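User: Show me sequence and structure for the first protein, then do the same for the second.

Assistant: Starting with the first protein.
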Amino acid sequence: MYKINVNSLQKRFEVNASGMFKKEEAIAFLDELEEKIKTINPKEYTLIIDAKDQKPSAQDVVPLQEKAINVYVSTPFAKRYSIVIDSAITTNQVKRLGKEKLLEKITFIQSIKEAK
């Protein structure tokens, strides 16, 4: 399950993801992510990713998850935050997919309140 919200007043691009994505849902997510990014000037927005309840991805979803991470880090958002994921297995999977990109470009926070 996912939700992508563009908050024009606070200049926040909010991505919420939870549960285990099926391949079809991951494809729809990527399409919506890319389309919504086209509607804003990312340099004016803060990206906030809340995937703390996301479950590990099946093998057929992993390439799509990697593509989403690449979109997060290659889009020139003003700032990037990700709420720490509850599942250690999912955290390790995301870090493995994102390699150094995540650590260099995204600030990990405990709650949305920490996003500035």
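Switching to the second protein now.
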Amino acid sequence: MADAVYVDSESGPRDPAGRVLNRTCRFLAVCAGIMLILMSLMSFANIVGRSVFDKPILGDYELEQTMSAIAIAIAIAIAIANAVAM
């Protein structure tokens, strides 16, 4: 993933619109990664809360489903940008 997010300035687009799109795609990829980390932390907190404190996070499954759909949708931009560049 680090290779996909890190782009050498010499190999990137040279026109201003391309640079803006490239930065936007990289920003969205980082946001998707952060969202996946938050999902795993929420799942961990739900497991600990359910087993130790007997208080699970209500709506955890629905939140994870929504967050995974959003993460996939915003990660498509970098996937398409990398596929076009190849």
